[in-house]
What does this fold into?
Amino acid sequence: MRIAFAGTPEFAQQALAAMLAAGFRPVVVLTQPDRPAGRGLRLAPSPVKQLAQAQGIAVLQPQGLRLGGKYAADAAAAQQALAELQLDLMVVAAYGLILPTWALQMPRYGCLNIHASLLPRWRGAAPIHRAIEAGDAETGISIMQMDEGLDTGAIVSRQAIPIHAGESTAQLHDRLAQLGGQCIVTALEQLQQSQAPLPSQPQPAEGISYAHKIERAQSQLDWQRPAHELARQICAFDPFPGAQALFQAATGGAPQTLKIWQAQALPAPATAANADADASTGAAAAPGTVLQVNRQGVDVACGQGSVLRLLQLQRAGGKRQPVQQFLNGFAIAAGDGFSASGTGAATAHESRG
It folds into this structure.
């Protein structure tokens, strides 16, 4: 089969690697243009481009594919190049550009997309992050016959996996990337054997949700929320953008932004015991108040009387560190506070109001 592959990041690179290992070598690869990266902001190729070049596969990097759009010349050149290849299929994985109608209709068997969710749940740009943030018990890979909608195409196959407790987006990403490679290879083997469009089922009308793009502004922890929600947010935002909060010592000094990379919502009995009252005043601890600090972690009061134990932190200019190591160089004590929803650092001497 004459296959084109369209993808950009590591998730797509692993799918391409799986295809190559199984003998499905694309005749061309489409990927995003090189982007500035690193301290020197030098142009760097995408992970997919790096693999394609290492394998001697031709690479196209149009800035856009809409014939009437801003990059119409790029689109026209890409259209001509792809038409000359007489494609049987295009495989798409986290490409980053919308495929217009001409691209969807050009290959003999259309375009198959590798999507990192169990569609129709979590259509859109950030399905892995949003599944963890929402507390989903499982997610998976959907192989979809692409149409002009946003992840609305008919489903060729779905493979589910559980989301582990405390699993970060980085960890789940790697498992899904491997699974995505396996699923697309299976689909390609079926297509090669049948030499006919793969059977597919329309997505159900129920259970639709959208995984909106993750923005840096969403990284701020809101301590008014329950601890279990914050723990999920911390996992979901690792590695990007990283959950953060403004720390303020009760003794004064300039507030400092800390990133929190790992945390645990304490069980209900411990939560009730720790968050019931401030030992010094008898008042209920305000969300964001540091309740206690020990070798197990930093316990912080959260909404609904819950407690979040911080396990891995990072200061500005520093590295991610386990809490024991972090506390060797950064003092945190009971009564200190973290900002709650941008309202300023809470302390043990504030009540919930």
